[in-house]
Amino acid sequence: MSSFRDPALIQRALDLTRSPDLRSQDTSLYLSQFFSGAATRDPAWAFTKAHWAELEPKITISLGDVTLATSLSSFCSAEARDDITAFFRAHKLPAAERTLQQTVERINNCIETKQRQQPALAAWLSAQPAR
Questions:
Q1: Cα–Cα distance between 32 and 68 in angstroms, integer?
Q2: What is the CB neighbour count within 10 angstroms for residue 6?
Q3: Contact (CB, 8 A) for 4 and 10
Q4: DSSP state, 126?
Q5: What residue ranges do the domains of the chain occupy?
Q6: Sequence-separated (6 or more) residues with CB below 8 Å from residue 68
Q7: What is the pLDDT of residues 66-125, one digit of tens each?
Q8: What is the CATH number of domain 7-127?
Q9: What does each C-alpha distance from 41 to 18, 76, 116 come to in angstroms?
Q10: E strand or H helix at 121
Q11: What predicted TM-score, i.e. pTM, was given to this entire model?
């Protein structure tokens, strides 16, 4: 389901996290899958923030908070990093505090790598013959 590209299907799949059809202990693992896809990452983060009050009790059991925090490391922008940091500053995950720090570090590494590699990649692509 995390491979969907259609916004309506993404929303429908995310809504399953709020359904009794998904066991509470499975919520975090299910939701974390959405952070790996380019088309689902931003909608999943917006959904998580919008429904946090409802999701938090399901996510903070069985180390689900650690799973969620780890999955957020797929973001690669300063804006996302700052948003994640601000959100979890206001919504503490004590069991995942160290994991959140590691996630921010991974996002920072991605940002730095992208900034370092982007000019070389752009130059290489512009030097390729048109097909």
A1: 5
A2: 10
A3: yes
A4: H
A5: 7-127
A6: 28, 31, 32, 48, 59, 93, 96
A7: 999 999 999 999 999 999 999 999 999 999 999 999 999 999 999 999 999 999 999 999
A8: 1.25.50.20
A9: 18, 11, 23
A10: helix 97-127
A11: 0.89
